[in-house]
What does this fold into?
Amino acid sequence: MKIISNKRGQSLVEVTVALSILAVVLTGVVTLIVNAVGLMLDSRDKTEAVAYAQQYLEEKKGSKTNSCIGLDDTDESPSDIAGTKYKKEVDIVGSDSIFPGAVLVTSKITWNAKNGSGRDVTVKQIMGRK
It folds into this structure.
């Protein structure tokens, strides 16, 4: 009795299984890369927002000596930062409970992330008036 073996069919099944496994692995790798890039972009946006918030605190100080003459309780409405996707809002509130003449300056930066969700960063600093 003669046994007929079909090696070609078996090879085709092996190749199909190998390609299926490769496709699943590559899908996972691509998903990880896309998520990593998204997190990197979110991190970059947040770093830029913190830098803008600190910049506006420095502007309100007027100098590095913490001389805040003329800082009164104010509330700026949100305004666009030219050439960027960010909006700034600076709030100055008297804070005599900490020490006389102190003001609490709050700098808030808002923006929309790539996925459309709203993000914000808030930096606060207590400043004294001389």
The CA atoms of residues 18 and 62 lie 66 Å apart. Strands lie at 74-75, 79-80, 87-94, 102-112, 118-128. The chain has one domain: 8-128.
